[in-house]
Amino acid sequence: MKIAISTDNGNVSEHFGRCPQFTIAEIDDGKVIKKEVIENQGHDSAGSLPKFFQDIGVNVVIAGGAGSRAQEFFKQFNIELIVGVSGSVDETIEKFREGKLEGSAGTCTPGAGRGYGIYKEDGHEGEEDYKGHDESSQRQNVDHTSLPDS
């Protein structure tokens, strides 16, 4: 099982696509076997970050919040998205590993990511990138112990 956590200064970032870094953790048989922090390279086209996570075998993405377009791409790529998470990355990994991580409606609001973190390479700041969150598509109180290993 491989998870990616939007990261800002060792904490879960409120804004998935604009966080400065991602923490990638591999969990096998209930133990963290590898953890690394990678820089957010930005998203040069719609869906490029979700596609990147699919390409490196990520099963679950955890963030404070994510826009509706990102949510749709994660669904398309069969990657579970858990939003509404806050706190330290290490505590988040532990809660996930123990099957106790709870998500909620999300901590960021549409448009709140402007001026924060990483921007798209083309500099586009259109409103279509910041439409409201679809709370019905976000999971809460997920039992992660039943997810398949990759």
* Helix content range: 10-25%
State the CATH class.
Alpha Beta
Q: Mind telling me the C-alpha Rg?
A: 14 Å
Q: Give start-end ranges of low-pLDDT stretches.
A: 112-150
Supply the CATH superfamily name: Dinitrogenase iron-molybdenum cofactor biosynthesis domain
SSE run: EEEEHEHEH
Number of E-type strands: 6
List the helices and strands and how they pair.
Elements (H helix, E strand, L loop, with lengths): L1 E7 L2 E2 L8 E8 L2 E9 L8 H8 L4 E3 L5 H9 L3 E3 L6 H9 L53
How does this structure look, described?
Strands 1, 2, 3, 4, 5 and 6 form a six-stranded mixed beta sheet that branches. Helix 2 links the parallel strand 5 (60-62) and strand 6 (80-82). The longest helix has 9 residues, at 68-76. It contains three helices and six strands; from the N terminus they run E-E-E-E-H-E-H-E-H. By secondary structure, the protein is of the alpha/beta class. Residues 112-150 have low confidence and may be disordered. 17% of the residues lie in helices and 21% in strands. The protein has one domain (2-110, 137-146): Nucleotidyltransferase, domain 5. The N and C termini lie close together (5 Å). It has helices at 48-55, 68-76, 89-97; strands at 2-8, 11-12, 21-28, 31-39, 60-62, 80-82. The protein is globular.
